Amino acid sequence: MASVTIEPTAAGDLAAKGGKPQRLAPNYWPFVVPALVVIGAVIVFPWVFTLWMSVNSWTLGQEQTFAGLDNYIRLAGDMRFWESMWHTLIYTALSVIAPLILGTLAALIFDGEFPLRGFLRGVFVMPMMATPVAIALVWTMMFHPQLGVLNYLLSLVGIGAQEWIYNQSTVIPALVLVETWQWTPLIMLIVLGGLAAVPREPYESAEIDGANAWQKFRYLTLPMIAPFLMIGVIIRSIDAVKSFDIIYAMTQGGPGTASETINIYLYNTAFSYYDIGYGSAMAVVFFFVIIALSFVLMMVRARTNWSDMEDR
Amino acid sequence: MTPKITHRMWNRLGLFFVAIVMISPVILFFVWMISLSLKYEIDNGAYPPILIPENIAWSNYAKVFEENNFLLYFWNSILVTGAATFLALVIGVPAGYGIARLKAEKAAMVIMIARMTPGLSFLIPLFLLFQWMNLLGTLWPQIIIHLVVTVPIVVWIMIGYFETTPKELEEAASIDGATSWQVFRLVALPIAKPGIVVAFILAVIFSWNNFVFGIVLASRETRTLPVAVYNMLSFEQVSWGPLAAAALIVTLPVLVLTMFAQKQIVAGLTAGAVKGG
Q1: What radius of gyration, in Å, describes the C-alpha atoms of chain B?
Q2: Second CATH level (architecture) for the domain A78-311
Q3: Average pLDDT rounded to a whole number, residues A7-34
Q4: Considering only CB atoms, which chain B residues are within 8 Å of A31?
Q5: Domain B63-276 class?
Q6: pLDDT in tens, A227-258
Q7: Distance from CA of B87 to the nearest CA of A (A)
């Protein structure tokens, strides 16, 4: 490489004029092909196959017949499916909002300077990487109404015993508690990245103007980290809507069907009842729900950036 | 000491305590997890709960390995995660390079959608495929399906990384007559090492933690650790001590990796996010 003395771009111009022997334009496709083959086999093929099965009526071990849109029509009238949609909506909304607030708060703290900051941040990030099933089992023990440590801690501050995941009305908030515990650090990391880019000067002039801490956050920090919060909302929504491990390991959708989200119902349909056709139709609908959700969120995000630019 | 300095010191100390309060749910959880795993049944059933028991039940850990075949499942996990990560790096790193240099937006889009799709929707067709191919009962179905997790992660991170590495050196090398492969192998790849490390770590963690594929595809002999620990629950009257010990064994490798590779994990998880901002 030491032999190269002229600017590469200049050399390129020279070659184009025919002053130098033509070099081959680098061919990048061979690098991509193996991955395309694998992605085609394990990702695209399942998409197409699922679509095909969704227009068939097929329970494992029985005859497979073409069913047209029957599965989709059945889905539209399936109360259990609509209920699972509703559960998914509540679960997702709560699992976005709670980590968003706590994660932003944590980011504001970790943006400051204090002893052991790096180490404590490392501890804080651990839940996010821990094996969800293992975590879920320990939370299940902690939620135990009689022997669980959480009810004991509540009793210390004078709050009565809760039934947590064992009661239909508290099961979703209890699961969201675990989800929040696990994923608040991700929001913290994203917002922390945003805070790092925030300039100092506006704060100094705000201080001279006598702004208090809340005003500084509301009118200076918040608008500047808004795009990062939006990214956090997008990532969190997509993850929460398809959350499976924690719910399945702790409640399997119960008690009754009180915490059955679309993903859990889909699992039960396909792998407990082996109703492959119907499960596939559900998977297709679920897929489009997620795509639609991401699309809407991306639009909102594009709009926020746009208005930001107009303000400047 | 001037008043200003002490003021700053108090600020830092105050922030330190606020931070401790903030992360206390994490600390309490893991402390309690360890405590559960080291207590005999009688102490785990005590009210009020006991944090540090008089008799420490190390035997819980021995029980996990003796009664539940955990050594085999540990080995299965290593094989599945190892193979799925290795294959993903072999095909995903060049792909990330190619996509970044080609600016192939459509290919990047497919990867993105693949990352958003719930794992379950891949599971039905692939489950049937593996059944037809008579692969169920071996580790291959799990290795192959874990590629659904590892390949998009590796490709995604490598696209982002190669977009930031300079093209000039590569162009210079190809003027000197290097083939595309040589350019990649000798110029692009060595520079990308930090990106590859990030991709490797995240692929390992997400593959190791995966649960949903295993519950459907694993048989008694091919369970990975997350499935094995979940299956311990199905025995009625399971005792908490060994269960907590098993949970800790499953997640400990990942937690250790998190502590040691904190910087890479933070970079990997925020790279995609922040870059788009």
Answers
A1: 24
A2: Orthogonal Bundle (1.10)
A3: 60
A4: 94-95, 97-98, 180, 184
A5: mainly alpha
A6: 889 888 988 998 899 899 999 999 999 899 99
A7: 10
